[in-house]
Fold these 2 entries.
Entry 1:
Amino acid sequence: MAPAHNDFNHGILKETAHRPWPMPEGAWIMTQTWHDLLFAHWPVDVEMLRAKIPAGFELDLFDRQAWVAVVPFHMSNVTPRGLPGLPWVSAFPELNVRTYVTVAGKPGVYFFSLDAGNPLAVGAARALFHLPYYSASMRVDEDNGWIRYHSRRANGTAAEFSGRYRPIGPVRPPAPGTLEHFLTERYCLHTVDGSFRAHRAEIHHPPWPLQEAEAEISMNTMAEAAGVRLPAMAPLLHFAKRQDAVAWPLMRTSQP
């Protein structure tokens, strides 16, 4: 798929009333636009998941339930601030596996893995954000309203996703207090460096333009590759056609 480039919506920087805390101080450093994104969420065992996150990170639960998501999408406008996007560098597919944690009082996302179809982006993200990025062979196509998605990790690990998905309902931003809001309205990510010190990267985006979705998933070993067992049940599905976001630099986490 070939989304338009250099069409980032900077108007999102003025849309802040929905945020759970004020915009970060200091300058943001990167834009990203996420396209044709599927949130596929499964409820998982709390104790099993707790053993998989870094020491000092607290699982963020909804009604005492933990959740794990497999999230396929593709990106454009992945560029440092002030620089133009380049189609062969700034646009590529990405597929992540994530859960939700609270660190030093701030709820956010914790990534078990992030697969991307751009080796340059993989190397940069590992170095700059201490994130578990992996190179993968990936393909994304649209077919009569369905998004067809395939990803296979390049290092020989059995980490593969194949399927198709599409929206089936109207756009409806998630209401505060709902499960959908808890799972999607996240404004930072948490990670650890090579010495297991906690770091946080702040992000900003408008409220998610969620739609109910349906999916036909023929292969999904992404969570299993991270040692996380998903239950044998249909996931909770949401689709977003587009989301523009900015990110701030990774900072060492300090206690509140």
Entry 2:
Amino acid sequence: MSYKMKNNIICLLITLMFSVFLASCTKKDTAALKEGEWVGVLEMDKNEKSQLLPFNFTYGKSELVIRNAGEKIVIKEIVRKNDSVFFKLPVFRDEIRAKIISGDSLSGEYFHFGSKSKYSFPFSAKFGKSERFENAKTPPAADITGRWETTVQPGDSDQYMIIGEFNQKGNHLTGTFLTPSGDYRYLEGAVSGNKIMLSCLDGSHTMLFKADISKEGNLENGILIGGPTWKEKWIAKRNEKAELPDPEKQSAVKEGTGVVDFTLTDLNGNKVTLSDKYKGKAVILQIMGSWCPNCMDETRFFTEIYDAYKPKGLEIVGLCFESNNFEDSKERIQRFVSQIGAKNDFLYAGEVGKNNIFNVLPFMKEFKGYPTTLYLDRNHNVKKVYTGFSGPGTGKHYEKQKTDIIQFIDKLLE
């Protein structure tokens, strides 16, 4: 056999061996994730490994769907790269970045990007599981369905009150907490023995609630974890008549405020003056942020009614308080607007923060939280200031709020 022929054979063998190796690597790197039910878990506290936030999702047809009680969050922005996969949650900027351990196992990080905060939690997920809180099967000590007066940070100088509303069926528990600035949206979990557990992951919230049912029927030893630095204690007692502060008496404009006006920047970089662009129009001013989940729920509702009321002389303007960088903020706002499908105007109002609220809107006297919504008549006099928004996760409260807003808009346009 000639030297040339031997050399050709060696080259061919090397090529075949490399092809087999490449094929095996490719097969490993592109292992398909199994389609069906999964449970993901975030490790919320590195010092307490027992503080785990579970959430349900399904994977299939190139989309991942997170479920929180009655809510479905569809993730279509999915990127595969070798043995890793990246899921970008809609509307907000949170991401899951994970390594595919096998077709039925993921391990990686959950990254949260808030208005100013950025942090991550260890993430893992297993295929074929459906129980949100594993092994929560002990017969419940009580049925906690109903309305609960809840004190957060009890005994501290900064304690505050919220309201829990729960619906329990056997071990399964759903509900939410109502707060002066809105609600904690869709919470889902379990009651097992005297333990209650609720969680939510929706792209903005990463929330874990736990508490014990006392012998007297109260909720005690409560813990809320919403982030690395957001950890609070809470207690609750059943109170069907519990009420939050009046949302129309939280934020306020200065006494004697007449016609309001301001100039801000639109998403094209152009200056917009309220009195010029919206002359003769009744205006809803939504003090908001693209990072705010209650603002998202309010914006979705306004989007539903905008086409019907715009021809009647109503304009809705989102005043977006974001970062101090216009280009970064513009990107966030555009993502928020496009994924919701909003058609009204949104203006960049600068950096998030109470002090900047008063700088941008000097007619404001008090500001208690996002969203705060100002209703202006056709001459741009303030007719109502409303703080907070109860979203669809609050059920009947959401339906009543929608009805109240529509009735007020009808009067505003008369």
